[in-house]
Amino acid sequence: MEDHTFVVGQEFPDVKAFRNAIKEAAIAQHFELRIVKGDLIRYFAKCASEGCPWRIRAVKLPSAPTFTIRSLEGTHTCGKNAQNGHHQASVDWIVSFIEERLRDNINYKPKDILHDIHKQYGIIIPYKQAWRAKERGLAAIYGSSEEGYCMLPTFCEQIKKTNPGSIAEVFTTGADNRFQRLFISFHASICGFLSGCLPIVGLGGIQLKSKYLGTLLSATAFDADGGLFPLAFGIVDTENDDSWIWFLSELHKALEMNSEKMPQLTFLSDGQKGTLDAVRRKFPNSCQAFCMRYLSESISKEFKNSRLVHLLWKAAYATTTTAFKEKMAEIEEASPEAAKWIQQFPPSRWALLYFEGTRYGHLSSNIEEFNRWILDARELPIIQVVEQIHNKLMSEFEDRRTRSHSWFSVLAPSAETRMREVISRASTYQVLRSDEVEFEVISAERSDIVNIGKHACSCRDWQLYGIPCAHAAAAIMSCRKDVYAFAEKCFTVASYCEAYSEEIYPIPQKIDWNKFGEAPSTLNEDAQVVRPPKFRRPPGRPEKKRICVEELNREKHTVHCSRCNQTGHYKTTCKADIMKGIEQFEPCRI
Predict the structure, then answer these.
(1) For tag attachment on the chain, is the N or C end more exposed, with fewer CB atoms within 10 Å?
(2) Which keywords fit this entry according to its UniProt record (predicted)?
(3) Do 170 and 179 touch, CB atoms closer than 8 A?
């Protein structure tokens, strides 16, 4: 049927197949179809153009669903000019056209649908029709948004059943159980973080684009190799101060349940007041820092100057007071306004030199990397967003666990590379020993004091990065000790393996949910029915405020007041009488 031609006697599996074939032919050959008679046993149609003799008649064969063409009359004399839209190109037809493409690419845009249909069939359909078809296609493939919220409680139970020790809780609001918040943290993530990751947590959020919108909040960490390690995530109807307090409260509970003592943590965030206050309340003993990626993007957006961004990063990585002040002076020289703007962010919250906590050299969080995991799923129902994260976590844990089996070094690859560079430079330094733990290390450029007992060097690299600097390595090797033994434990291959030692198990498909467990009938009976939030995304393409060039060039009209003869206001808004009254009372003031 690729050429969309019909012959008498041609057969089709059933009436639906025949109707689809005739519709495809009408669209591809650019003629409108008028159905005279159409039911389950017969079909008679003709060309909708006045005077065109084309006719087709088909019937159902006895005792079989097969449809066959009985007669085909005339040829088209209408010119086939139905290029601008087509009555047969319904939303359902577009859905059937794009379904496979949507499965392969969730971000298949309406404008791409328009382009592909025009390229293949030569017709133009309205943008809104393509948008509706995409929405209906996504719902057919992945289920509706409403169904996703309704199934959340059962889905959370499946997470906890298949991954024991995991936390998956849905929170509702109001008497009608409207969705408010969802918190999920897999047991493997919690245990892996506590036993094998750096004690650094990045916080951030990303807007979802499904029918009822919402925001995905996340907490991520770094593994021993500096890789992304998702710790927990949540979905909230609205991102505000209360939602961040709730999210961090749930995170605190998850960590507290799985550790005897809460670790000393450092939080990296965009520095918004709601996030800072929430961390201060729920993790009072932790340290907080601004994410440098966010800070550098902000100054770039504010001042459109790449040199300022470069200098800010240099200042952030400075390890001496002199170097920091030099870079800040250069920023002042390049842009006094930028220097004043930076003052709203205390150096103790972003500069490596002044930060009181431990960041191991990580000035930026890895939230953006985590957000990229769900970029393709942001338009899908809420359960599909969670499934996307779960599937990615499952594959990443397995891949990294397998990869680490081939590592035979003491430290993870990135730390191992740094250590080798350090040892190589250390061989050129001269070491003078003061006592059992203190040394003076002399290089061509400078002299530094190293205390191997306190894991400290006057260059401050050892304290800031957690791995001995070249001066420290020279001092350690001079007394025949193992340099690797002085690196922080969180950088070792053993810690990396510990982080991914627990498995994240698959969650059954929806059709199998009632097949697992001893009492399947109670699973749905006890589950709470969750309704979607009241707020929903308005239909159609979001409106944009467009600037008209003609309006910009047009001379502005100046209004004139007929009462006081001043410009800038009308007679109805004139305050001349009021001002006169005030002036009359001025001399009476004591």
Answers:
(1) C
(2) Metal-binding, Zinc, Zinc-finger
(3) yes
Q: What is the mean pLDDT of residues 134-156?
A: 86
Which residue has 């431990």 as its token pair?
Answer: 358
Cα–Cα nearest to 483, from 493, 471, 494, 495 = 471
Q: Are 215 and 272 in contact (CB under 8 A)?
A: no
Residue closest to 322 by CA, chosen among 187, 183, 460: 460
Is residue 523 predicted with pLDDT exceeding 60? no
Backbone φ/ψ region at 261: left (φ over 0), alpha (ψ -120 to 50), beta: beta
Using alpha carbons only, what angle is made at residue 482 by residues 497 and 413, rounded to the nearest 5 degrees? 35
What is the rounded distance in angstroms from the CA atom of residue 25 to the CA atom of residue 34? Answer: 13
The vertex-286 CA angle with 204 and 238, nearest 5°, equals 30
Model confidence at 262, pLDDT cuts 50, 70, 90, reads confident
Tell me if 131 sits within 8 A of 538, measured CB to CB. no
Angle at the Cα of 289 from the Cα atoms of 220 and 416, rounded to 5 degrees: 60
Domain borders along the chain are: 10-73, 91-142, 146-291+365-395, 292-361, 413-486
Beta strand 266-269 pairing with 287-290: parallel
> What is the number of other CB atoms lying within 10 angstroms of the CB of residue 579?
11
* Rounded distance between C-alpha atoms, residue 470 and residue 419, angstroms: 9
Mind giving me the DSSP string for 473-533? Answer: HHHHHHTT--GGGGS-GGGBHHHHHHHT-SPPPP---GGGGGGSSS-HHHHHHHSPP-BPP
pTM of the model: 0.77
CA atoms lying within 13 Å on the CB side of residue 261 = 3
Distance CA 135, CA 11 (A): 34
